[in-house]
Structure formats: C-alpha cells, structure tokens
Design a protein that fits this description.
This protein has eight helices and seven strands. With 252 residues, it is an alpha/beta fold. Strands 3-2-1-4-5-6-7 form a seven-stranded parallel beta sheet, with helices on both faces. Helix 4 links the parallel strand 4 and strand 5. The longest helix is centred in the middle third of the chain and has 29 residues. The relative contact order is 0.15.
Length: 252
Amino acid sequence: MKRFSVKGRRALVTGASKGIGFEICNVLAEAGADIVAVARDSGGLAEACAAVERFGRECLAIEAELETVAGPKDAARVALDHFGTIDILVNNAATTTPASLLDAEVEDWDRMMAVNLRAPFLLAQALAPKMIEQERGKIVNVSSQTSVVLIPDHCAYAASKNGLNALTKAMTCEWAQFNIQCNAICPTVILTPMGERVWGEPGKGDPMKARIPAGRFGLPVEVADAVLYLSSPASDLVNGDLLMVDGGYTAL
C-alpha cells in the first residue's frame, strides 16, 4: 500500500468546501497528506479542515475568488509561505451555467473560462517552480466527460474543460522532464450540489443515466479515489492522460 500513500506530501485542492473537492481533501488526508483547502465558502472550508484534522493531518484554509486573476495567485503565495512547497496540485473548482449556443451569455462564458481554465493555469504556473526545484510533483486537473463527448447546452463548459485537457498535455510536454506528472480526470455526472442542480430532475437525468452502461451517476468519493491514484507513486509513469471516470459512457 506504500505505492498509494501520499504520506508527508502537501496537497492544494481547489473547490474544497463541498462536493468532489471536500471528498478529495478527505481521501488525500486519510492517505497521509497535509492539505491546503481553497474555496470561497468559509463555513465549508472550516468543515473540510475539521475532516482533514480528524486524520491527524494539517489543514490550511484559504478563502479565494478563483474567478479573478489575483485569487489564484494569492492562494498559491499563501500556501507556499506556509508550507514552502506544494507537492500535489488538484485543480477541482469549476462552475457552469447550462445554455444553448444561441442563448449563452458572454458573462457566463467569461466566468467559466476564468474559473475552469485560467485559475488552473495560474495556480500551476505559481506552484510548478518549486516542484521543478525538488524534481517531483503531481498536478491533477478535474475535467469532464463533456470535454470528450459533447452534450447540448454545455458549449462554454465543454470549451473550458477541453481547454483544460489541452493545458494538461502542455504541462506534461514542458514539465515531465522534471519528474512532474500532470493528468486530467474526466468524470460523468457526479452527485454533487452542482450535479443535482443540473441533472436532478428525472426528465433530464434519467435519459442521461440511460446512456451510461453502469446505469447510474457517480459519487464524489469515486473521483477522489482517482485523484489519490494520480497523486501517488503508483501512477509515476502515467503522464498527460485523460482518465475517464464515466461508468462506460465514452466506451459506446
């Protein structure tokens, strides 16, 4: 099990106050990592830190608005000031406003690009130099099944996540030589508050489930387990990959 341990590592997780991000903090802490939890919700951050600390690990909470340029940069600076280096970066925070191509608003487009794509770029840019210096690092970008197989009313979201996939490969192209592994996870619908909001109505959710061979949506912990694998030594030869966590959706 040592191959799947992240004991002694420090992980920065965005969107840490709820849903997938909350579970990622739990799973990485249980596997031995100290956590930097980044989100907007102070109450949710407090709960995430309490969960991490139950495993005997340290948790640093950072309130940040990732939609801005300053938010990711400031979060990275605070994390580095506290821990000296970050060994694992998990770009999990995301936002979506479903709309058709004809109805999509430019303000929603810009917000999704800022949170889903620009923030991961800025965080990686800020944290990678220390990873390069120590010749070790893991970057896990939480993308989406929608970045590979498109569905209606997700034009901006899909574009931002497809950009995140390309950014993941660019990171691999430039940083693999420094023993930094950069991968993306592409989940199907996950039953988070955002997932429930978009897919909770049976009239919309049931047809989507019918297209998944497993016949169900995913749970946050199932994405968190994939993050642990890609954060651990067990995945040291996996680089630039898009890991589908989709119940077989993209196999059809």
